[in-house]
Amino acid sequence: MWFMRQAGRYLPEYRAVREKAGSFLDLCYNPELAAEVTIQPLRRYDLDAAILFADILVVPHAMGLPLKFAEGEGPVLGTVRSMQELDRLKPVVESYEVRQVCRTVALTRSQLAPHLALIGFCGAPWTVASYMVGGGSSDRVMAKVAAYQRQPWFCALIDRLVQESIDYLSAQADAGAQAVQIFDSWAGDLVASELEEFVLKPLAAIVAGVKSRHPGLPVIVFARGIGMGQRKAAAISGANAIGVETEYDLTELPKDVVVQGNLDPVALLAGAEVAATEVRRICAAVDPQRHIFNLGHGIRLGTDPSAVGAVVDAVRRCDG
Ligand code: CP3
Prior knowledge:
Layout (H helix, E strand, L loop, with lengths): L11 H10 L2 H5 L2 H14 L4 E3 L6 H5 L4 E4 L3 E4 L5 H5 L8 H16 L5 E7 L1 H10 L6 H8 L3 H24 L3 E6 L7 H22 L5 E5 L5 H8 L4 E3 L15 E5 L8 H14 L5 E5 L9 H14 L2
Parallel strand pairs: 1-4, 4-5, 5-6, 6-7, 7-8, 8-9
Antiparallel strand pairs: 2-3
Helix pairs in contact: 1-3, 3-6, 6-9, 7-8, 7-9, 9-10, 10-11, 12-13
The protein binds coproporphyrinogen III.
Coproporphyrinogen III binds next to strand 3 and helix 7.
């Protein structure tokens, strides 16, 4: 059991460290403070794993695109909308940004109790590309149009992100990450052949590339919102586990698939009772031997930390 965004603004101890760091990005690139916030939720809750504190936009930033998080407005990122702009981007592995993230991984691993796992991550090519095309906006229309048109620069951007993601996840594994998750938060935007081309194939290529360098490293693929496509993701991605969105009925996956998810983050806003009922429903539906308990998306801002505690307790009670 672990939770997406288990470290973050809903925790007062996180807000205190974030204040000390300055900006969100200063925190991402400060290994001591980033390790501290990675570990904070494990001090509060009986979880099994920590998730590296960083952001999916570290990769385009490390490739050389300017990035800023304007308070309350979300990210502002330099754009890539042509082959020339793509060709100017640098490899991530030698960058200051990725070196700092890997220092966070190593430092967190050295500070985390041995029985707790450290999960590294990256954003998936489709989701990251949608921000690179849209300049940090969550409006993915321009990226979708480029995908439908099979614009050569867009296809090359996806291929480039596949390679950079393999290097980035391998570097995290070298630094001490014991599993990795690929976040395709906007995978649900695409259907049919676009889903295949820009979500499923790139995810499978990253899994294969990472496993060629780190054969034993467990990889979790989280293609959020693809519904019926989850079966295909399980069949072709090569992942060890399939993360599923809240809306997905996790009994739909074949019995040999390890499934991660999928409590509704909004249930935690509805109170401890509601959340515990949902936990029991999910735990009863799937074999605990092939289940990684998680949410269907990240913990929301404004969640009461005690609701998270109630969920953890309810899951532990289901474990018997
Ligand atoms: O589960 C995890 O904690 C893994 C790390 C992670 C974060 N963000 C940490 C974070 C991951 C996988 C993400 C995903 C992400 N980040 C996406 C994909 C969509 C999604 O929600 O899944 C996007 C678009 C981003 C870019 C980003 N980072 C946004 C839009 C924001 C909110 C900005 C704002 O001002 O409201 C962030 C900040 C961010 N990333 C926080 C965390 C914990 C909040 C931290 C803070 O503001 O102090």
